[in-house]
Amino acid sequence: MSDHPPIEVYAEIDSTNAEARRRAEAGESGPVWITANRQTAGRGRRGRAWSTETGNLAATLLTTTDVAPAEAAQMSFVAALAACDLADIFLGPEAARLKWPNDVLIHGRKAVGILVESGARDDGRLWLAIGIGVNIAHAPTDTERPATSFAEHIAGAPPKPADAIEVLASRFEAWFKIWMTQGFGPILEGWTRRAHGLGERCEARLPSRTLSGIAEGMDTDGALRLRLDDGSVQRITAGDVFFGGA
Ligand code: BTN
Residue of the nearest CA to atom 16 in ligand 1? Predict the structure, then answer.
């Protein structure tokens, strides 16, 4: 018996997150993993596009929760830890690091992106679409910073998306159980242990301005603590963070 929700596979779809939203708005509660071998309109954070070619993995967990939206947002870090495990399992321990908030980097370059969308259901509960895009076989070339794929770091053939989603769904389930029983503490600890660039200078591009400072760590609500040059701490809750190379 599998230890995770059922996995559905589409050969091609516009976006697994869009499909999760359509189903949620039609009343489906999940949990179910919706995956696709190819996305024609994959979406990324901050309105960007996300390309998924055959050989890569596009997966969205549609689920429903009773917890408040602010707490439910912590599930993006549950997903980040699961994706980091996925990379470590196929590429070797310590290959993957997490860049705030939830990008997985392999040797400094992005290989996994996560987009969580949510909405209120008619019954008052919250639906969540936890979308995870994994560059297994191909890395996009049209990104602001160079991206990478699992294949670039594996001597033999990269994993098949069908095998990768089994591992990802199992690791998500394991971290999800920890989050449900012990709260955000162990998730924050796991994220911090694998974080990229803590203690280093970075540039935080916020919706309205850009700040530069030292990334000190993540707060319990998921905000990044940035120490500015005047000594004050700015909490970053939305935006992109760039370190020297990533
Ligand atoms: C990012 O910008 O880093 C987030 C990318 C998220 C991509 C995944 S692929 C599966 C799911 N479906 C989508 O359309 N987007 C997410």
Answer: 131
* Integer Cα distance of 223 and 13 in angstroms: 33
pLDDT digits (tens, 9 = 90+) for 143-165: 888 899 999 999 999 999 999 99
76 CA from centroid of ligand 1 (Å): 12
Q: Which residues line ligand 1 (CB under 6 A)?
A: 15-17, 39, 42-45, 48, 50, 52, 58-60, 103, 113-115, 131-133
For the chain, how big is the Rg over CA atoms in Å?
A: 17
Q: How far is the CA of 232 from the centre of ligand 1 (A)?
A: 34
Q: Which CATH number fits domain 201-242: 3.90.1150.10, 3.40.50.300, 2.30.30.100, 2.60.40.420?
A: 2.30.30.100
Each residue's pLDDT tens digit, 205-222 = 998 899 999 999 999 999
- In order of 11, 160, 226, 237, the CA distances from 197 in angstroms are 37, 30, 12, 17
Residue to mutate (ligand 1; options 8, 13, 17, 118; most atoms within 8 A of CB): 17
Spelled out in words, what is the top-level CATH class assigned to the domain 7-193?
alpha beta
pLDDT band at 28; cut points 50, 70, 90: very high
Q: Where are the domains of the chain?
A: 7-193, 201-242
DSSP code of residue 229: T
pTM confidence score = 0.96
